[in-house]
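Operator note (shift B, R.M.): manual run for DUF7673 domain-containing protein requested after the automated queue skipped it. Running by hand, logging everything below so the morning shift can see what happened. Input copied straight from the record, untouched. If output looks odd, do not overwrite the archive copy; leave it for review.
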Amino acid sequence: MPQAQPAGEKNLFDALVQYQCAQTSKELLEAGPRALARLVPIALREAGESRVVGRFLLGLHDAQAHPFALTDLRSLDIGVFEDCLCVLYLAFLNERAVQNYLPRGRMIFNQLREYWA
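Run finished. Output pasted below as returned.
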C-alpha cells in the first residue's frame, strides 16, 4: 500500500507541476503564432497538404460552418502536423480568434473560404 506524502512535500510537488505546466503553456503560446504563420502559405497554395491545412484552419475559425475530420491530419508531414497541434493549442488556450494573430487575418480567412469551403 503506497504511503501518503507529507503535506509539505505534496504542496511542493503540486507547485512544481503547476510551474512546469505554466512554462509549457507559455512556450506553446509563443510557438502558436509562428506555427500559424508557417501554415497559412501552405493553405493558400495548391499542394497536397493545402486542402487539409486550409480546412483545418477554417475548422478552428468556425467549426459549425467548416467541420473538419481530425483523421485528415494523418496525411500531413510531421512538421506540418506539429504546427497544426501548436495552432490548436493556441486556439484552446485563448478566446482570441485564430485569424486575429495574423496581419490581414480576415482577408486571409476569406481567401481560405474561397479555396476550401
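Quick read of the result: The chain has a mean pLDDT of 85. The chain has one domain: 24-116.
Leaving this for review. - R.M.
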